[in-house]
Amino acid sequence: RSAQEMKHMENVSSLFQGGHAGEYRQADPRLGREAAGEQPWEMIMDKKHFKLWRRPIGGTNLYQYRVFGSYTDVTPRQFFNVQLDTEYRKKWDSLVIKLDVIERDLATGSEVIHWVTHFPYPMYSRDYVYVRRYRVDKENNLMVLVSRAVEHPSVPEAPEYVRVRTYESQMVIRPHKTFDENGFDYLLTYSDNPQTVFPRYCVSWMVSSG
Predict the structure, then answer these.
(1) SS3 at position 12
(2) START domain location, by residue (predicted)?
(3) Most buried of 68, 123, 133, 140, CB within 10 angstroms?
(4) Are 72 and 89 in contact (CB under 8 A)?
(5) Cα 66 vs. chain centroid, distance in angstroms?
(6) What share of the chain is helix, strand, coil (3-state, %, to 5)?
(7) What is the 8-class DSSP label of residue 21?
(8) Is the pTM higher than 0.85?
(9) Residue 62 region, left (φ>0) first, then alpha (ψ -120 to 50), else beta?
């Protein structure tokens, strides 16, 4: 399904190359195949190599986000490996408090991750327990990485952190040529509930400015 959404996004993108955000919404206000009752996507950032949309998640004050971006000076394999490399993330992400693979399934390649990330004072740090799975699809020239929150008996809730129980992420990487030549597009669809008390307009400002 993630791969199909990438193909759909590329088709829509070709309709408005060089256009503006309003033209994009006019060309396809949904940016995907929404189920009945889901809200349309709203563009909140439109740059040459980075476009960001959001849509409300029903019954909450939260949003789901979608990013469509491009790089021309990195290979798809390098970018993909950075997404998977938990040890390297500890070096470049100063907000990481803990990031460990706690279980692997050799049959499927699925991994369960425990991630603790710093939140600004006076909020508690947040911790995530999630399963991730990836696939390199040579036939369709795609790389796909999906994650979602799970529970795991070896990682009970800790009083010093706030457990994030709702989290989903799907990333699709499409090389411009091959996996080992510079240049690719990526589509990231993401949502989580960090259980903050910020009103929606504050969250919107943080996303659009950060």
Answers:
(1) helix
(2) 38-210
(3) 68
(4) no
(5) 7
(6) 20, 40, 40
(7) H
(8) no
(9) beta
Strands (E), the chain: 42-47, 50-56, 63-71, 96-104, 111-117, 125-137, 142-149, 161-164, 167-175, 184-192
Q: Which two tokens stand for residue 58?
A: 């029903």
The token duo for 12 is: 């829509």
Residue pLDDT, tens place only, 32-75: 555 555 678 999 999 989 999 999 988 888 899 999 999 999 99
Domains of the chain with CATH codes: 1-10+38-209 (3.30.530.20)
Q: Which of 69, 121, 76, 118 is nearest to 98 (CA)?
A: 118
For residues 155 and 148, the answer to whether their CB atoms sit within 8 Å is no
Contact 90, 72 (CB under 8 A): no
In this structure, which amino acid lies at residue 200?
R
Question: Is 102 within 8 Å of 81 (Cβ atoms)?
Answer: no
CB neighbourhood size of 110 (10 A) = 15
**Quick one: which H or E segment has residue 204?**
helix 200-209
- What is the mean pLDDT of the segment spanning 90-113? 95
pLDDT, residue 196, reads: 75
Q: And the tokens for 181?
A: 């030549």
First CA to last CA distance, the chain: 29
Helices (H) and strands (E) in the chain, counts: 5, 10
